[in-house]
Amino acid sequence: QLQLVESGGGLVQRGGSLRLSCAASGFTSAYYSIGWFRQAPGKEREGVSCISSTGGVTNYAGSVKGRFTISKDNAKDTVYLQMNSLQLEDTAIYYCGAGDWGICPSLSQRGFRSWGQGTQVTVSS
User: In this structure, are residues 59 and 50 in contact, taking their beta carbons and an 8 Å threshold?
Assistant: First the structure.
């Protein structure tokens, strides 16, 4: 079955950049929508971004629009989240999950599965 593994997190200063990766194994992610979600301490997991199986549809939370860019490389079976102009409020554990066709506009945990273990992003001032 499909397994997803996140990587690329770390400590970065405010205004800096990080590139997260969501790598698939067990089954290709090429036929799934892939969403990025994050969870900060004391908060619910929230949708950050999503990309359709073809890459033709993307969606972003308002809080990250213009700063984050989601992309995918089917040859590498990997989805990326380029995060620029990072702010303190971006600090969270970032997860990726797989969803069915047409789910990206919702940016909701509901309908996503095969969650990875998450990668920690910490933004300092």
Answer: yes
The phi and psi torsions of 89 (rounded to 5 degrees) equal -70, -5
**Of the candidates 88, 87, 97, 48, the residue with the CA atom closest to the CA atom of residue 69:** 48
In this predicted model, what pLDDT tens digit does every residue of 43-95 receive, in sequence order? Answer: 999 999 999 999 999 999 999 999 999 999 989 999 999 999 999 999 999 99
Say what the pLDDT of residue 28 is. 87
β-sheet with 3-7: strand ranges across: 3-7, 18-25, 78-83, 68-73
Cα separations (Å) of 18 from 31, 48, 53, 83?
26, 15, 23, 5
As a whole number of angstroms, the distance between CA 97 and CA 85 comes to 24
End-to-end CA distance of the chain: 41
